[in-house]
Write a sequence for this structure.
């Protein structure tokens, strides 16, 4: 509800972008910031698909990267880095432990090898990861919150 905050959502599927823009898109108002939606591929190339002239304060990737191969995850992280964002808020599973309803469930799988192909993902084209471990090796989050058993780390 702060007019100086602008939200820009993105998805690779143009039909979903159109639907979201129609349903939630809005111009800036005196008491509310603008919301817009654009088509973008988080696995951007050299053109830096997430770049915009004034940059971003934070990029939120909630339950996005698990659908990518490890090489695509690394490319996505590079793309976010090029976006000018000061922060990344991203889903991951610290130490591969899901925290559900007061129970800790340790996943059998670990991070896939960097050369893993799409065939290494499960039937839902999904794999879970700990971004602080190789091949990603991001620093420990400065802040995190539980999100459906997983963590959103900043």
């Amino acid at each position: 509800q702060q007019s100086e905050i602008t939200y820009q959502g993105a998805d690779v599927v143009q039909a979903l972008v159109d639907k979201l823009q129609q349903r939630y898109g809005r111009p800036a108002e005196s008491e509310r910031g603008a919301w817009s939606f654009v088509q973008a591929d988080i696995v951007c190339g050299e053109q830096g698909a997430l770049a915009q002239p004034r940059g971003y304060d934070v990029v939120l990737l909630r339950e996005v990267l698990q659908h990518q191969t490890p090489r695509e995850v690394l490319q996505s992280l590079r793309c976010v880095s090029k976006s000018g964002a000061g922060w990344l808020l991203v889903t991951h599973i610290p130490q591969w432990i899901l925290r559900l309803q007061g129970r800790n469930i340790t996943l059998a799988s670990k991070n896939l090898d960097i050369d893993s192909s799409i065939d290494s993902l499960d039937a839902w084209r999904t794999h879970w990861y700990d971004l602080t471990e190789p091949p990603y090796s991001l620093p420990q989050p400065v802040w995190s919150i539980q999100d459906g058993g997983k963590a959103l780390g900043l």
